[in-house]
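Continued from yesterday's entry.
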Amino acid sequence: LLSAYQHFWHDRPMDVVVPVPLFERRLRKRGFNQVYLAIRHWENQNWQGALPALPMLARDALRRKRSTPPQTGLGRRDRMQNVKDAFEVSVSHSIIKKRILLVDDVYTTGATVSECTRILLKEGAEAVDILTLARAM
């Protein structure tokens, strides 16, 4: 993911990187957020001189405010309905007038990242770009 960021955003670095959150109960049950694990090292390194400059990691800027059933097996329309209004900005000062890099593990129909993007823009983000580890085919 870091290599992809450096390759595709070298000429337009983002301000903040936000992982797609899990609902609190699912996070407690699983014990980790797989998206956060994939990018957590971005905040603990000395990246001076890295091109592009690495964005600040805002782990808790976005919150899943309600539990949603897994998206597996759902069609596009059902996926969109499943995640509608499931997210909220919990730390608004970290996203207002900022260019956000939203990170998710798998992009299937785009329902989750579309809903997260809608909320981030509604709450004042300047722009939202998406980076995912995999694309379902």
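--- second protein ---
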Amino acid sequence: AEAEVIHSLIYKNVHDRPTPYIYSEKEVLLLMNECKTLYSPDGIRAYSIKTVIGLLWCTGMRPSEPINLKVADVDLNKKIIRIQKTKFSKERYIPIDNSVAKKLEAYKRWINNKLGYKAPSEAFFYTTGVTPLTESALAYAFKLIRPCIGANPKGYPFVRLYDFRHTMACNTIRRWNEQGIDVNAKLHVLSTYMG
């Protein structure tokens, strides 16, 4: 039989992943500060993007997860965020630090003052013109502000929103190491938290 053999290197290995970029706290603060340069005539876009970046950094959420949050998903009294639409369609709950809850409370109060009371079934994050924030709007805004940190990631041209997830995981493991905690024994906790 005269069958042509396809060379194994024609298709890239689907499991090849670029090296994640790990943000420093200074870089995250620079990115959040840079949000004030975004076109935001009513201030909503700038404040929302800044808040979402802080939330991604603190929680390691996937970039799509804050976008899908409803008001009812963010329980600021119990300091818990419910993620309904996850990668594997499983609901999960994320405990948040008191400082994160305070920032989200301030954002929620500001949005309610600006746009009027938001019902539990309505979006938590908004952009200019009383429009719920979308993943594409978040990605575009991030594209505009990311040059401010002058990052040079390996394996891809620009830092990504998803790198906040890797940063949170690495920072957690680093903190456990510094505290003398057995990382291998705790990895299931981190895995469950991150979904």
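Residues 98-115 form the longest helix (18 residues). The mean pLDDT is 88. Will compare against the first tomorrow.
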